[in-house]
Design a protein that fits this description.
Beta Polymerase, domain 2; five-stranded mixed beta sheet; 2 domains
């Protein structure tokens, strides 16, 4: 995290939430290894709904989202209720796994550590579809705007997907990924450029990056085809039991905030 982010009292944000928060981590550009001086802070986590919210007549607020300015920094907070978060884990959703496994921890407890221990059991070769689709979306945005940010996102998700298919490890940090995969040599320069301007233009030939993006798509396809990851999650029952236990514990006395 940048010094500005480290200076923020992010833990205070967690305590301000209406329901107990099981964990909160920093995601976005700070997690991906290419924050800018003016990057916002993306906080992601899991909250635990009360019995009244779950069994009453009103639809429960399973996802809470808020954006605001705190000490001159734009904050973006999204949390899911535990059951929804675990369901997303089972739907080959790379986002939630990156959030759960993020090393940039704002708040945690034994409960999310148990959940993280189950995370390898939801990984499948089909997670490649998530990263392939996200890369395609970000590439289209780059072609439309010419901005560096969506270009770096394109490379980041492709490299994350390739690394996951090859190693079974969720790694979201682009500088780290560059050291593991046959990445374009100019990526460190692009990361350095984005550090100065969040929405700056990409100073690189379109044809060159297009060729490299196409090459990485091929590598992702090949990595998926040969991956040792299974076709389906193996921990559905364990996750079900985990959600039930944590929910009952919360009803009895409330989990650690």
């Amino acid at each position: 995290m940048t010094d500005d982010v480290l200076d923020l009292d992010l833990a205070a944000v967690v305590t301000e939430q209406p329901d107990p928060v099981l964990f909160a981590t920093v995601s976005g550009a700070h997690l991906y290894g290419f924050p800018s001086r003016d990057s916002d802070v993306d906080l992601r986590g899991v909250h635990l709904l009360s019995a009244a919210e779950l069994v009453g007549l009103r639809e429960p607020e399973e996802t809470r989202s808020r954006m605001w300015d705190r000490d001159g920094v734009e904050m973006d907070l999204v949390t899911h209720d535990l059951r929804k978060f675990v369901r997303l884990m089972l739907r080959r959703n790379g986002y939630v796994l990156e959030q759960l496994l993020s090393p940039l921890v704002v708040h945690t407890s034994e409960t999310p550590r148990e959940l993280a221990a189950l995370a390898p059991g939801v990984l499948t070769r089909h997670h490649a579809h998530h990263y392939r689709g996200f890369a395609t979306t970000q590439w289209r945005l780059f072609e439309k705007t010419g901005e560096l940010k969506p270009l770096l996102y394109t490379f980041r998700v492709l490299l994350t997907g390739i690394h996951l298919m090859r190693s079974g490890e969720v790694q979201a940090d682009l500088p780290t990924l560059i050291g593991h995969i046959e990445a374009p040599a100019y990526l460190p320069e692009l990361i350095a450029a984005k550090a100065e301007h969040e929405h700056g233009a990409a100073d690189v030939a379109h044809a060159r990056v297009e060729d490299d993006v196409e090459r990485l798509h091929v590598l992702l396809d090949e990595a998926q085809a040969t991956s040792a990851l299974p076709d389906a999650p193996s921990v559905y029952d364990a996750l079900h039991a985990f959600v039930v236990r944590v929910r009952l514990e919360g009803f009895r006395g409330g989990p650690e905030r």
